[in-house]
Amino acid sequence: MAQPIGFKDGSGQVCLLIKSIYGLKQAGQVWNIEFDSVMQKHSYKALISDPCTYILHQGKDFIIITIWVNNLLLFKTLDELIKQTVA
Predict the structure, then answer these.
(1) pLDDT tens, 2-58?
(2) Could you tell me the residue range of the domain that residue 73 belongs to?
(3) Helix (H, G, I), strand (E, B) or coil at 61
(4) How far is CA 46 from CA 32, 56, 65, 66, in A?
(5) Do 3 and 13 belong together in one domain?
(6) Do 47 and 36 share a domain, yes or no?
């Protein structure tokens, strides 16, 4: 990434990108890493067979969250689990 027009100081230095910008090829990976850390913080476990699918067990009941492109699919055994998750 080069210095923006108007900020060139002749040093030849480049800019360091601190956050990913939407549209860059790294943006999806950064979002996935952030999403994974949030899911783990809330006790969800990623499936070994599909790392885009998370599950949370509460006794006999469970909730499954699957990432599909830019959508989330939610599956549950109790309505209360969805209310807790979405809130």
Answers:
(1) 666 777 677 777 777 777 777 777 788 888 888 999 999 999 999 999 999 999 998
(2) 43-86
(3) strand
(4) 12, 9, 9, 10
(5) yes
(6) no
Give residue 78's Cα distance to chain centre. Answer: 25
pTM given for the model: 0.68
Sign of the torsion angle spanned by Cα atoms 65, 63, 57, 60: negative
Is 75 strand, coil or helix?
Answer: strand
Written as six digits, the tokens of 17 are: 């990108």
Structurally, the chain folds into a number of domains equal to: 2
Q: Are 53 and 62 in contact (CB under 8 A)?
A: no
pLDDT at residue 71 above 80?
Answer: yes
Same domain for 75 and 54, yes or no, is yes
Alpha-carbon Rg for the chain in angstroms: 19
DSSP E strands, 11-70: 45-46, 53-58, 61-68
Q: Give the whole-angstrom CA distance, residue 34 versus residue 49.
A: 20
